[in-house]
Design goal:
The structure is a single chain. By secondary structure, this protein is mostly helical. Among the domains are: about 100 residues; about 100 residues, Serine Threonine Protein Phosphatase 5, Tetratricopeptide repeat, CATH 1.25.40; about 90 residues, Serine Threonine Protein Phosphatase 5, Tetratricopeptide repeat (Alpha Horseshoe), CATH 1.25.40. About 60% of the residues lie in helices and about 0% in strands. The protein is built from 32 helices and no strands. The radius of gyration is 51 Å and the shape is extended. The chain starts with about 40 loop residues before the first helix and ends in a 25-residue tail after the last helix.
Length: about 725
Amino acid sequence: FINYNLFPRKKKNDDDTKVIGTNNTPGMGLSIADKEKRNVIQRAFTLPPSRNDALIWLVRTYTEAGEYGDAAGLINILQNDKNLPARLKNNLEEVTAYWFFAQENYDSAANHLSLALSNADTRQDKSRWEYLLAQLYEMKGSFDLAKNFYAKASRHTTNPVMDIYAQLNSAKMLEKKGDFKELNNVIANLVRMTRKDKYANYRDILFYSAAVLAMQKPDTANAITLFEKGTKFSPEDRLAYKNKSFLSLGDIAYSQKRYRDASGYYDSLQLSDPDMADVAVDIEAKRKVLHKLVQYYTTMEREDSLMKIASLPEKERDDFVKELAKKYRKLQGKKYVEENVAFTPIEFKNDKDKQGDMFEKDRKDKSAKDGATWYFSDASAKSRGSSEFKSLWGKRENVDNWRRKAAIELLAKQKLAAQNNNNPDEPLPPGSEDEVTIQAAKEANYSYEGMMASLPLSQAQKDTSNSIIASNLLAIATIFQNELMDYEQAVIAYIEFLERFKNNDKEADAYFGLYYCYTKLGMTSKAEYYKNIITNKYAATKYNTIIQNPQSLNPDYKEPAVTALYENIYSLYIEGKFDSAALAKQKADSLYGNNYWTPQLLYIEAVQLIQQKKDSAAIAVLTDLQNLYRTSPLSLKAANLIEVLGRRAQIETYLTNLEVTRANEEKIIVGDETAQPVETKKPFQQVAVVPVKTIASTTIKPQTSDSLIKILPQFKSGAFALEPEKPQMVIMI
């Protein structure tokens, strides 16, 4: 075994013959620890021997290094070592718990950690260990023990955040046990904690935690109240819980089909928060849909309100509008006056440079007792001061809005800077300089005349208002059906549309929407009812075609009969019957559109049009080919052909003026192999005899085959040497 020996000893000790780590000690088991014999003075003035502490740290080191086998052997030895001092028992339990924890054996880790709690250095460390113990027992399924240790952590901790989470998790244990009475007490306790100064900076966490517990009961109404309170106390530098609260509120409103509230809650989210990364895409998609829905609702409700006010009796309508104008003017901080406020004309006096003194009368009459009358108690002084102010500055409304005006101007400048990318040299977008300021400072015309002008009083205005309501209501139903998949709300909107706007041009759309929604809801009888209405009353519409042939909704679906018709048209083009093919295609396109076109058909049609010198029509056909069949090989050919047609006149002129000289062809004379050669007789000539000198005969040997072959030089390995006078051979790779 590993011999964990002692530190160096003094010479000539009695136990020089004994080695620590063996069984040589009489009456002792296996021991590697030093036996500590320290008297009172040594304990008071000296530190304990460090070797035993080093053994504990060695266990921790083995565990951190992942050498669990060596750590386990050392733990086993120390657990059975009688010489291990009592002061290190808890330390051994601590490192043993960590050894189990590192190997994800949480059950045994919890058992050993519970025995080492007294080894914690501070009260806060002890609370952290208790919190960890509670989590381990929760993972183990021992909810009673987990609840007890969460409660201990809450009592011992000095960290308010840990206190909050300890109570929250303790309440979760109650929910898992089904103890809702105690759960209510925990929620009430969390709410009480929000009133204490100690937790003033953590109110957002407290309200959020209480709301989460309320949702577990479930008590949705109370949870909504607590979530909303949490958003009001969230500090600027901690947006996590504010975002969580708004997200929970948005999800609750969305599930309860309060889509307008959901849109507002989702808009309040800060998606730049890293905690929102997982749901950012989903939230953004919901935002877009809900924005459209809220816009349609706002427009429709506004028109409904105007129609309702317009339907009132004239006297009652006038009183209502005046009262409403007064209310809105008051909200804007303006004083409501029925008469027009005109400015008093400015008077030009010769003594304009003279400084006025409203207290001149008082100074002249200092000797009199009434000469010291306070200015605001002197009616004549007040009247004189008021008239002087009006003559100098004119008559103005009693409004103090300079702070609001300054804020609006600052906001406008910030928006302009944002549009300009904070670059003073970059030009502003067209019209933005005035539009942003006007939009920021613009106030709706809440005067009596402005409100009366917006009321639909004439029949034409009423028809326009009803048309706006109908289109928005149908758009709302379509969003419920196709984007939110809320078929019940879509049915309600469709039925309201049919009841309010009978004989409308869009009735077929509403009936088909009802048929579709009832089919999705599984209500077949009602779906059949609206299906019969469409087939009988709107047989000529596309909705009847869709009902009779649902496959027609598939953009890739093509009816075999129509496909055969277009194949026949293509055959006519191939056969050269261009006029018949063009007429047949024109007739088919009027019935079926471009759903049955093919690249080959369009290309051959364009070629036929080019032959007839109808270049503009050919280019239109080739453009359709490119747009409809971008991946087809003929799309590239169509682009080339369009480019050539653009230069057709130039090409034809060049070819017309081009002079071509044909080269002379070579004449090949073929002989008749069967004919006999013609022999011509030459005249007889007598040849003189010349003596011939005898030449000695010599024998010439024929050359051997080796002499005809040039012997190549022997290849020598070495560096390449360029010889410019010789031809060079190059291989291109």
